[in-house]
Design goal:
Helices cover about 40% and strands about 15% of the residues. It has about 375 residues and is an alpha/beta fold. The protein folds into two domains: about 20-250, 3-Layer(aba) Sandwich (Aspartate Aminotransferase, domain 2); about 250-370, Aspartate Aminotransferase, domain 1, CATH 3.90.1150. A seven-stranded mixed β-sheet has the order 1-9-8-5-4-2-3, with helices on both faces. The protein has a three-stranded antiparallel β-sheet with strand order 7-6-13, with no helix packed on it. It is globular. The structure holds pyridoxal-5'-phosphate (PLP).
Length: about 375
């Protein structure tokens, strides 16, 4: 129990209590090494990450946003290319597509909030000019790599999977990110593998694509002062790489296991409550970056207020569908179909606290608080 009695979405004081000493060692090591940019720490972290993700190579970048952009550009996506993607994600997914010169084409999501693969197929069949796709393993739910790979092959579509929320997630024993041409990860501090600042990585199957991503993250330099492309400055720091290698990576499997235990406790405890949990597909092994539930339409803020009054912090992922964002006014994009499910998520989704440092007692307090809420009238207890 925290001194203030609150149950938080993320609890960085507990994170620090667990990893602080390792972090300080890693910082001391990098500080003493005098090597601060693109040195041995980044190289070692990239190798560990590639092994963990089941892909041959990784390129550490400045953020998840950059990793997606770099991935699309490393695949030589032409300017003006249409990119099939989801309307329900962090805005960064779409922003990266636009920054890479692509035109987002949004199709609706399914009952898990993931890109609806049936609709995606229909759209690819209808519009043969779509040759790129950025699906998102939202909330830590894996999109079936088998289904993605089959779709990519059938329609000749290059897939860059946004795995920012889904490191270690698997479907039918296949890892997220392995189905397509490449995968992007984010190490934003709240992520399952989070740095103490910004970071990301792009991983790919093809050594040529990996090499192009390496060039793009470093001003487009192929060798010192030789610039083949207009790249970015998006290099993962030695400090972040060292910290993650020493403090977070060795704990990631145990932390993921704890998220899964908490999710099971919620799924069991919330059955019969007034909120709807999301279905977990057969064969799916999510990593529960978030624990999303759906409130009855029009009652979300009431639920959130009820929980806040019981010291339970909640979030919303995400309150708006991406094509409705003002930043896209004047930006070319397409919305060929209705986004009914995505709109429903945007109106109804509530994220309950889930992180590896929650105690069973705290999870039960959240379950009790949600169970006490009665959208039909008064309290249930
Ligand atoms: C699904 C998704 N894609 C992309 C990003 C962007 O990652 P970053 O914040 O590291 O740029 C995030 C995280 O914010 C995310 O959740």
């Amino acid at each position: 129990m925290r001194p203030d009695g609150r149950v938080l979405l993320n609890d960085f004081s507990r994170l620090w209590a667990e990893i602080g000493e390792d972090v300080l060692h890693a910082v001391a090591e990098v500080g003493a090494s005098g090597h601060y940019i693109l040195g041995p720490q980044v190289a070692a972290f990239e190798s560990s990450l590639a092994a963990l993700a089941g892909l041959p190579g990784a390129v550490g970048c400045g953020s998840g946003l950059d990793a997606i952009e770099i991935g699309l550009r490393a695949l030589d996506m032409p300017a003006g290319a249409k990119v099939l993607t989801t309307p329900l994600s962090a805005f960064a997914t779409t922003l990266a597509i636009v920054r890479a010169g692509g035109i987002p084409v949004f199709v609706d999501v399914d009952a898990q909030g993931l890109l609806d693969l049936d609709q995606a197929q229909q759209e690819l069949a209808r519009d043969a000019s779509i040759k790129f796709m950025v699906p998102v393993d939202l909330y830590g739910f894996p999109i079936s790599p088998g289904a993605l790979a089959a779709m990519g092959e059938r329609f000749g579509v290059a897939v860059v999977e946004d795995c920012a929320q889904a490191i270690l997630a698997e479907h039918s024993a296949a890892k997220v990110g392995t189905a397509g041409a490449g995968a992007a990860f984010s190490f934003y501090p709240t992520k399952n593998l989070g740095a103490l600042g910004d970071g990301g990585a792009f991983l790919a199957k093809s050594p040529a694509v990996i090499e192009r991503a390496r060039v793009l993250r470093d001003y487009g330099q192929t060798e010192r002062y030789v610039h083949a492309r207009l790249g970015l400055n998006s290099r993962l720091d030695e400090l972040h790489a060292a910290v993650m290698s020493r403090a977070q990576l060795p704990r990631l499997r145990a932390w993921t296991e704890r998220r899964r235990q908490i999710a099971q406790r919620y799924l069991h405890g919330l059955a019969g409550s007034a909120v709807q949990t999301l279905p977990v597909e057969d064969g799916s092994a999510p990593v529960w970056h978030l624990f999303p539930v759906l409130a009855p339409l029009g009652r979300r803020e009431e639920l959130r207020g009820f929980l806040a009054a019981r010291a339970v912090q909640t979030g919303v992922h995400y309150p708006f569908v991406i094509p409705s964002q003002k930043a896209l006014a004047g930006v070319p994009f397409a919305c060929p179909r209705k986004l009914a499910n995505a709109e429903a998520f945007a109106a109804r989704e509530v994220s309950l606290p889930i992180h590896p440092f929650l105690t069973d007692g705290e999870v039960d307090r959240v379950i009790d608080a949600v169970s006490a809420w009665d959208p039909g009238g008064g309290k249930r207890t």
